[in-house]
Amino acid sequence: MRPAGVMRRHVAIVGNGAAAISALETFRTHDRDSRVTVASAEPCTAYSRVLLPYYLRRKVPYHHLFIRDAAFYRDFDADLLLESAVERVDVGARRLEFADGRNLPFDRLLLAPGSSPVRPPIPGLEGPEVQHLWRLDEAGRLDHLFRQGARALVIGAGFVSLQAVWAARQRGLVVTVIELAERILPTVLDDAGARILQECIVASGVDLHTNTRTEGLMRDERGTLRVSVEGLPSFAADVVIVGTGVRPNDHLLAECVEPAQRGITVDDTMQTAIDGVYAAGDVARGPVVGGGPRTVHALWPTAVEQGKIAGANLAGARATYAGSLSMNVTSMFGVTVASLGRFAAEEGDTVVLRDDLPGLRYLKIVVREGVPVGAVALGGAAAATALGFLRPFVRQRVPVADIEAVVTGEHVAGRIARGRAIGRVVPGGSGS
Amino acid sequence: MRIVAVDPDSCVACRNCEYTCAFQQTGDFDRARAHIRVAYYPAERACVPFTCMHCAEAWCMEVCPAGAIARNEETGAVEIDAARCAGCKMCLLACPFGNIGFDEADGVSGKCDLCGGDPRCVGSCISGALEYVEVEDAFAFRREALDTRLRHVLRLDKGRP
Amino acid sequence: MSSEREIQQTLCRMCDDRCGIDVHLEDGRMVDITGNRAHVWNKGRLCVKARAAVDMVYHPDRLLTPLKRTADGWQEIPLAQALDEIAERLVEIRERDGARSVSVWKGEAIGFGQQEDIARRFIHAFGSPNYLSNDSMCYAARYFGYKLVDGGWPIADLENARVIVMWGANPPHAHPNMTQYITAARRKGAKLVVVDPRLSAIARRADVHAQPHPGTDGALAWGLMRELIRTGAYDKEFVERHTVGFPELSAYAATFTPEMVEQETGVPVATVIEVAALMGDAAPRVAMYVGNGLEHHENGVNNIRAVVSLDALLGAVDREGGNRFVEPAPLRTLTLYDDVPLTHLGPLGADRFPVLYDLRQECHTMTAMGAILEGDPYPLRAMVLTGANPLLTNPNTERVRRAFEALDLLVVRELFMTETAALAHYVLPAASFLERSELHTHAKHQAITLTCRVCGFPEVQDEYQFWHDLAHRLDMGAYFPWDDETALNRWLLEPSGLTLEELEAHPEGVTYSPLTTAPLERGPFATASGKVEFASRYLKDLGYDELPTYKSPEYRGTPDDEYPFVLVTGARKLLYMHSRFRNIARFRTAEPGPEVEMHPDDARALGVGEGDLVTVTSRVGSVTIPVHVMSPAEIRPGELQITHGWSEANVNLLTHDDRFDPISGFPLMKSVEVRVEKV
């Protein structure tokens, strides 16, 4: 029982994505008492950004984009403030200031506002046809623009862009992709993996140009957008998707952003330099598996993990984070693409390359002093499964004597045979 | 909560469990579609059944970006709602035991759901290698001794784990 | 509206395991089959064949109307007309060629049991001794092996054994739920020895897998006996008190040195010594089970007798953890061998294979082919065949086909239009096991189960009704006085003191007498001497060797360049039972078709890989069949295996119907000399 007259502690969560939701759920397993407010810039309950390309592909219906409904916030006893973009955090006064002038005091704070897409300085890159694929409303607008036979320009060949390209092809659009860099997916695939995927993209009928600059867009006399691209005849576009990266919404706590870095720096409890203020998800620059410099891993699983740690610590638990591990997976252009950790080999690394394992077209594992540190796999669903087998070794830095036994699951057979994996015997379950 | 405990020392890789499960999923006997698999290594005569252990902290469930994986409160099973699954394969990457499958035709992940609390694989296990038991009894169920040949094939002699 | 789900409990007869099942019905239609957890035998576990009974019963190709062959093909006719015409033809043939020119043949396709005894009763009532069945190629040889030595076939007490030996038996595929009893013993520390030329499913769990060349099991058994005698590890008291012929046995065993055994069988010296030591240490808790693998050889019965003799040396006869005699079910006898003995009419094969007829009242199906085709020893003109498909399961298919085509009357009762049914004059729809109510005995548990009629079809008669209706048309209705199968069941059950109502209330099985552990207190063994017979006077008097002497298989003699491989046929597969279930679509997904199992070295030498076609040729015939390249551990070089029952590549086109085990008359089917050519 709280003594009469003592205010309930108030925890504010800025953001309503994976990190925020995960933090709220974990917080409530520790603390049913405190008041919690979730402040979202968007007008709806939590939805999954990861699903937006699947929505465009018509794989996921609109209503399934929402991963939590209003009842969820009630069940977890949280006030949900919609369309409440936070403009500034007044650390001294311990209050949030909203764009519309409202403010909200807090005792403890989690900043999980995510990141925002970057719009490159390309002349004429504006108009209703020009969209990012980041927010729900943008996906909705793109859905209307995705008409059979429409001409699409996609600027940038990153993870989300290429999923948008795949969705556009599935919907019957004519697609041109212009990427300024030398290759596609630099943060998700190694060179060889990228080449394989690139072949698949081209084979699916996409006009893909790397190492190419988009010079500008203009409207012709009929109002149609025309695109000027270095080295190519100009062409018309009915829809333009801008996918040139995202930037953490770290301006909310600029004092915790180190010079020449992005992201709000957090320690292994997900706390910022300010007591009682935490950050998680795309906005956080946190510890990584195996040590090394703190990094922003703008990935769904990282957001979930960090949110769990932050949620626990907001409630006064003493959870620590072992560090994030980059992991990506999707299927596009008929191939499953998965990667894990650091897959770019450095001097002194051993590299295992296989193309003969069942269900795998390409597998690369980077090994440092006997310990796998990262991998890339392309193929069928087995690509994801293989890296799933490998992930605990990377995460816990366990040396592997027999890589093949790991990626084919034989080591799991061994653990099962020894009773180590029977039931809930694996400490902490399958996660961290 | 009860789980399907496996005893490789009793398994004969007869495949009844795989066929039964595939039949539950698809009405056919394509073993690739089963949510239980038996690895068989003839040279070492090792047979090891694998299936989901419905982990206490199921990472597949936590990382699913579609909110498609949830625990069945009645059976304790970690279940995938195919209608919500986007087919992103994050759960395949999340499972360290390879216990989530992918249905290429429907583009969705699939896994053991304990058949709603009466796992058919156990009912078709004619060797007795599979038992549906309380989690805490899963240990006692397994024989202590492990064949040396099994140890060899499963790379147990070559390092951890 | 959700429909009401009802469960009926009965037995599965998709194979001969007789597992308790729960049949789930919705609006009277079967929708699922699960295991009966209370049932004494299977304790709720079932192999995947059981559920397929739903598919089998409602299969679109199921025969549901009587068919008559006409010049224009099959014609549907009313059941009564079919029975009238068949009766008329049978009378004609009897009048012309005598009653013994008519025969019945029982198979396993509908889940046999009472079916067998009703058919036996019918044919004797008709006046012919010629009851034929699949038993003259399966089961009976093992029965002889045990009967001749022990006086009966005791049950291996697997779960109480310290050492289990599987001789040519693969329970996971052949008797699936036997596997759980082996597991139970192994969990208590029992060692498992598997004797099989192939790495069978059960061999995967073996502590010792002895891999003899096909047909050489007897040499291994003799070698083990020699070791036990040499080391003094045999049960001297048992041998002294309960056996005859030990001096002869001991003298004969002496030549089977481990080195000689290795040379003959391929089982290494060390393995022979190891297995003998395991047995000696565990005796008498050594449970040996002999499978069909030992039967189809030139020396089959004697090889089995040698194994059974080994039991006695270990004192593992009628002992817990060894082999235990069980009380037979106290049921009435339906056959007429006492009332109407017809031996004077010369049951087919009884002269050449007297043991087969004397101990099992089985006629010899291969001899029957000669009777049809050559009138030797006398003409056989008509056959009523129920649930059997000899065109796939008897040796030398071409000859079987010619014979069946030559019959004046062939009546086939079947579920489907089989290869054999296609040759019939009349095809009658048979009732599956789910459409009949019969009594079944689980000898191991000394329990009886009554199966129940779960469903039915208007024109489809159960076994009893068919023979009853035919008998009444042939003026032999007095032998079939019961109105229906329930009345028959009630009559059969009467001596047991149990009632049908009790059995109905206990589908998990009702014990008819408690299991006793009174080793060796049952009085004398049911042999001529009253003792376990290492040496058989009975066989000696019939002109056979007194001891279970070993005879090396013919293929082990001089190398035959023309037929360099030895082919084993008939290894069981999980999803098929002889020629059955090839029409269950999902079984085809899992095990799509026939294949010849081959060692990778042989495949390499032939230049073939997985799935490549080869032609396998014996002195009898040839088949073209895809190759399955096994792992090197799974089969020996030079040895092949083809499972029977596939019309696409019927291995019985290759098997001999004129090379027999001299005692059982069983054909040589598991050591056939063949050559292989790449297609």
Report on this model:
The complex is a heterotrimer of chains A (432), B (161) and C (679). Chain A has helices at residues 18-30, 52-56, 70-75, 136-145, 159-170, 191-203, 300-314, 382-396, 403-407, 410-417; strands at 10-14, 35-39, 78-81, 86-90, 95-98, 103-105, 108-111, 115-117, 130-131, 151-155, 174-178, 207-209, 214-219, 225-229, 235-237, 239-242, 246-248, 264-265, 277-279, 284-285, 327-332, 335-341, 350-354, 360-368, 371-379. By secondary structure, chain A is an alpha/beta fold. Chain A has a five-stranded parallel β-sheet. The radius of gyration of chain A is 23 Å and the shape is globular. Chain B has 161 residues and is α+β, with helices and mostly antiparallel strands. A two-stranded antiparallel sheet of chain B has the order 1-8. With 679 residues, chain C is an alpha/beta fold. Chain C is 30% helix and 18% strand. In chain C, helix 7 packs across helix 11 and helix 7 (217-230) runs parallel beside helix 12 (300-313). Classes of the chains: A alpha/beta (432), B alpha+beta (161), C alpha/beta (679). Chains in contact: A-B, B-C. At the A-B interface, helix 7, strand 21, strand 22, helix 8 and helix 10 of A face strand 1, strand 3, helix 2, helix 3 and helix 5 of B.
Task: Note the topology.
The complex is a heterotrimer of chains A (432), B (161) and C (679).
Chain A: E1 10-14, H1 18-30, E2 35-39, H2 52-56, H3 70-75, E3 78-81, E4 86-90, E5 95-98, E6 103-105, E7 108-111, E8 115-117, E9 130-131, H4 136-145, E10 151-155, H5 159-170, E11 174-178, H6 191-203, E12 207-209, E13 214-219, E14 225-229, E15 235-237, E16 239-242, E17 246-248, E18 264-265, E19 277-279, E20 284-285, H7 300-314, E21 327-332, E22 335-341, E23 350-354, E24 360-368, E25 371-379, H8 382-396, H9 403-407, H10 410-417
Parallel strand pairs in A: 1-2, 1-7, 2-3, 7-19, 9-16, 10-11, 10-16, 11-12, 18-20
Antiparallel strand pairs in A: 4-5, 5-6, 8-17, 13-14, 14-15, 21-22, 22-25, 23-24, 24-25
Helix pairs in contact in A: 1-7
Chain B: E1 2-6, H1 16-26, E2 36-41, E3 46-51, H2 59-63, E4 69-71, E5 78-80, H3 90-94, E6 101-103, E7 108-110, H4 120-123, E8 130-134, H5 138-141, H6 148-153
Antiparallel strand pairs in B: 1-8, 2-3, 4-5, 6-7
Chain C: E1 5-11, E2 20-26, E3 29-35, H1 52-57, E4 67-70, E5 73-76, H2 79-97, E6 102-106, H3 114-126, E7 131-133, H4 140-150, E8 155-156, E9 163-167, H5 171-174, H6 178-187, E10 191-195, E11 208-210, H7 217-230, H8 236-242, E12 243-244, H9 246-253, H10 258-265, H11 269-282, E13 286-290, H12 300-313, E14 323-324, H13 354-360, H14 365-374, E15 382-386, H15 390-393, H16 397-406, E16 409-414, E17 426-429, E18 439-442, E19 447-450, H17 463-473, H18 485-493, H19 500-505, E20 510-511, E21 532-533, H20 537-541, E22 565-569, H21 585-590, E23 596-598, H22 600-606, E24 613-617, E25 622-629, E26 639-642, E27 672-678
Parallel strand pairs in C: 6-7, 6-15, 9-10, 9-13, 10-11, 12-21, 15-16, 16-17, 22-26, 23-25
Antiparallel strand pairs in C: 1-2, 2-3, 4-5, 4-17, 8-14, 18-19, 19-20, 22-27, 23-26, 24-25, 24-27
